[in-house]
Predict the 3D structure of the following.
Amino acid sequence: MIGENAIEVKHVSKWYGAFQVLHDVNLTVRKGERIVICGPSGSGKSTLIRCFNRLEAHQKGDITVNGISLHNKMRDIAEVRRKVGMVFQHFNLFPHMTVLMNCMAGPMWINGVPKKEARDRAMHYLKKVRIPEQANKFPSQLSGGQQQRVAIARSLSMQPTVMLFDEPTSALDPEMVAEVLETITTLAHEGMTMVCVTHEMGFARAVADRVVFMDAGRIVEEGRPDGFFSDPQHERTKLFLSQVLRH
Amino acid sequence: MLYNDTVDSEALVHRPWFVAIVFAVVMAICSAINFTDTWMGELMRAVIGEPLTSGLYGRFATGLVLSLLFCANVIVIGFIPFKAQVITVWVELLLSFLAFFNAFDLSLPFIWDKLPILLSQGLFTTLYVAAVSIFFATILAIIGAVAKLSGNGFAYAIASFYTSFFRGLPLLMQLYLIYLGLPQLGVVLDAVPSGVLALSLCYGAYMTEIFRAGIQSIDRGQWEASRSIGFGFGLTMRKIILPQALPVIIPPTGNQFISMLKDSSLVSIVGVWELMFLARALGQATFKHMEMLIAVALIYWILSACMEIVQARIERHYNRSKVR
C-alpha cells in the first residue's frame, strides 16, 4: 500500500443545501492508529466518517483512503469500499439472510471466494466475535448486542484494512454495550486501523491513540486521550466533557 | 393475522343475541322465499301435509325448521378448532353453490362432451396468453419501478408517462388501439400478440407502482450497508433489496396475476380461441349458454384457486426470516 497513512483528509467542506456541515476539516489517520471521534449531536462527526467510504460526498477538499483519492469515479470508490469496513448504529444486517450468509455474501459475490472457503472464513470471524453458535439463525432472532457483533463479523469477512464504526453502541441496551465494546477492543489490540464515532468515553480513554473532538462541523481539539480528558484546551471541550462525564 | 388480544372472550356465535339475530334473518328470508316446493317441503310432508297447498302454515313451519337447523349448525361449528371450522364452512358454502348451479337444470352430458375442447384449446390459450403477459409485465414493472425511483429525469418522465397512460385507459380500448389502430401505421399484429402486448403493457403499468412501493418500503440502511460492503447497484437490487421487497410485493402482485388471468378473456373480443371465446361460441351454437358459461366459470375459478395456493406458498417462503 502507498504511504504510511490510511486516511488523509485535507481541507474538506460539505454542505447540505445551504447548511454547511463540515468546515475545512483536516485529519490524518496513520496505519494501525485508533481514533475516536466525539462531540455533541449534529456536530458532523457521523457525516465525516461516512465521507471516508463515500456514503456521503464532500464538496471541497480531498479525502485519500489507502492511497486512493475519493472522487466521482465508481471504480475507485468500489475499490475503497472493498477495503474499508463499516459498522452502523442500527446494525443494518440483511434480515432475509442467515447470520452466516450475511458474512459470506461479501466475499462470495465481490471477491469471488468459493463457497466453502467463504463459509470457513465467515465462521472464523463469527468465532472471533464469539457468536458462532448463532450462525444459522436469522438476525431477527438475535439480541441487539449479538446483531452488532454479527455486523462486525460481516465487515471483517471482507478482510478490510480500515474499520469505521458509526456510533456502534448507541442503539443498544446498557447491558449489551459492554459485549460490543469488548469485541471492538479486541480488534483494536490486534492492530486494526479504526475510526470510531462514539459517546463511550471510557472506551475512548482505554483504546484510542487519539481523540478528536468536533463541534459545529469543525475539529475543535485532538490529542492523546490522557491529555484530552485530564487537560482539555478549549472551553467547548471542557463544557462537553463536564456534561458527558458527569454520570 | 390480526393482533390477537390475550383476553379470551366468548365466541360471537355462542352469544344469545347474535344467534337470535341470525335466526331472525334466516327466518325472514325463508318467509320471503317459499321453500315448501323444494326437497325441504317434501321432508316436511308429515307435518304440513301436501306441500304445495300448505299455504302460510307450511311456509312458516318450513322456515322455522330451516332456521333452527341453520342456527344449530352455526353453534356447533363454533365449538370446533380453527382449521376444522375453515374446512367445514368452505365445504358447506361450496355445496350450497353447487345446489344453486344445479337449480339451473344444466345438461351435464353436454358439458362433459365439450370439456375436452375447452381444456385443450381454451385452457391452453388462456394459460399461454396469461403466462406470457405476466412474464413481460413483471419485466416492465421492474424496469419501470427502477426508472421511477432513479434520479434520471428522462427515465422518470418516460416511466411516469407510461404508467399514467396505460393505467388511465380501459384495457379493452388498449386492445382495440393495438389490434385495430396499429395496422393503420403499417404494423399488423396477430390477435394473440396483440392481446399479449395489451395485457403486458397494462399490467406492467399497475405492477410498476406495486414494485416501486415495495422497493421504497426497504430501509435506507440496507442500501448503505450493501454499498459500504462494496456491492454494486445491480447486486444490491437483486440480492438485498428485491428479496426483502418481495413479501410486500407478492400479495398485490398475486392479485394482479389472478386479475390478469381473468382479463385475458378480453382477447376473445379479437377472436382468440381462449376459454371465454369458446364458451360463447359453443353456447350460442347450441343455445346451451348457461352450461358453457358455468363450466368455464368453474375452470377460471379453479385456476385462480391454484394461483392463490402458489401465492400462499411463496409468501410463506419469504416470511421465513420473520421468525421471533
Q: What stands out?
A: The interface with chain A takes residues 219, 221-222, 224-232, 235, 239-240, 243-244, 318, 320-324 of chain B (CB under 8 Å). The CA atoms of residues 52 and 253 of chain B lie 53 Å apart. The first helix of chain B runs from residue 16 to 32.
